[in-house]
Design goal:
This protein has about 150 residues and is of the alpha+beta class. The protein folds into 2 domains: about 110 residues, PH-domain like (Roll); about 35 residues. Helix content is about 35%, strand content about 20%. The protein has 4 helices and 7 strands; from the N terminus they run βββαββββααα. A 4-stranded antiparallel sheet has the order 1-2-3-4, with helices on one face. The chain has a 3-stranded antiparallel sheet with strand order 5-6-7, with helices on one face. Helix 3 packs antiparallel against helix 4. The two termini are about 55 Å apart.
Length: about 150
């Protein structure tokens, strides 16, 4: 869907996950390998975004529950879920942030369980059984029937 190259990696956004690609010297210096990091979008709890300025590069950082952010041990280190980018790339990474937030919202809406709705006919049947069992009166049944049938 979207792929943006930053200073220390590339951000790939798909419909259900992000991929942080690290290659070459940057990956070896920071993490010891050039493996990609995949994070399901529904696991992202927060996105920190800093657009940068004339003196400092921008960054986008993804928080995931259960992962503890590692503090920088020396200048130049970066956190595993962070991509550094130039100020002129801010709009591209802001677009990615918005896209991820929209996808996360869509995934959350689709995962909400459907509430089991009882039809009026089922409800009427239930009240008829209650009347037959002597739990409610004929008058209470008729009142409920009128309510359910909009009479």
């Amino acid at each position: 869907m979207l792929e943006i190259k930053g200073r220390n990696g590339t951000l790939v956004v798909t419909e259900n996950k992000i991929i942080i690609k690290r290659k070459g010297l940057v990956a070896l210096l920071n993490k010891g390998s050039a493996s990609d990091k995949e994070i399901p979008i529904n696991n992202i709890s927060a996105i920190e975004f800093f657009k940068g300025n004339m003196l400092v590069n921008g960054k986008i950082q993804f928080s995931v529950p259960g992962e503890v952010a590692v503090l920088q041990s020396k200048p130049g280190d970066f956190e595993e879920n962070t991509i550094i980018f130039l100020k002129k790339q801010s709009s591209d990474f802001l677009k990615a942030k918005k896209m991820i937030e929209d996808l996360k919202e869509k995934l959350e809406q689709n995962s909400n369980p459907v509430i089991n709705q009882i039809s009026n006919a089922d409800e009427l049947k239930k009240f008829a059984e209650l009347k037959e069992q002597g739990i409610i009166t004929e008058e209470e049944f008729k009142t409920k029937k009128k309510e359910l049938l909009d009479l």
